[in-house]
Protein: ABC transporter
Amino acid sequence: MPGLPLAISGLKLAFGHDAVIDLPQMRIAPGTLTVLSGPSGSGKSTLLYLLSGLLRPASGEIDWAGTDIAALAEGRRDRWRRDHAGFIFQDFHLIQELSPLDNVIASAWFSGFSAAPLKARARLRLDTLGVPHERRRTNLLSRGEQQRVAIARALIGNPSIIFADEPTASLDAKSGEGVIGILRQLASEEGRTVIAATHDPALLALADTVVRLDHGRPMTIDSKAPA
Ligand SMILES: Nc1ncnc2c1ncn2[C@@H]1O[C@H](COP(=O)(O)OP(=O)(O)OP(=O)(O)O)[C@@H](O)[C@H]1O
Structure:
């Protein structure tokens, strides 16, 4: 599944009177890893939510390969997200009582995918990510393994875009390195568009593009990636 290119223009969002995002222009190429960094409250998570269509901007365009998701009504944005995006969160958002395999397939199964091919794909992905998925309960896994279950879940619908919100913040350095390596591979080897919000210097170091935000404005955009 190739990644999708992103072109942002004139993106603005305010909560009350406070401007939270003010981003005049930005482009992200497919197959790259982009990191949003900046101090707490600078708007990293809010920008991720805008780019994934979870939030709608006050104005501006969020053009993913010709589809301006800012112009879509909520239902169409939800469908676009289901078809194109996978999410990884700091605290995994897994159901601890379920097995790793069931965590990976549950939401896709509820979305109407048929169970047998879904299970086969989930097992393969968990194997590739090195998760011991025969365990009956997810809470028997280490935190690093749990984050890899969450990555497998994010990938089950084969999304072009992966959004990660502080994906290493609750992991030790070694597990964090494993997760960073996976994100890097998802971009470089699988060609997906990967966008992560983080404070983690190890993740910043491996990014193609680093967007440093301050009060929702990009102070610098450092890019090793083609525009
Ligand atoms: N739903 C909301 N209503 C009002 N203000 C909000 C809302 N969501 C975020 N904010 C405010 O918007 C600003 C940016 O928040 P955001 O969570 O995007 O920052 P962040 O850079 O991700 O911070 P952190 O690193 O602490 O997670 C903050 O001032 C926050 O208080």
Q: What stands out?
A: The pocket of adenosine-5'-triphosphate is lined by residues 15, 20, 38, 40-46, 197 (CB under 6 Å). The chain is about 35% helix and 25% strand. The helical segments are 44-51, 74-84, 100-110, 115-128, 143-155, 173-188, 201-206. The beta strands are 6-15, 18-28, 33-37, 59-64, 67-68, 85-89, 161-165, 193-197, 209-214, 217-223.
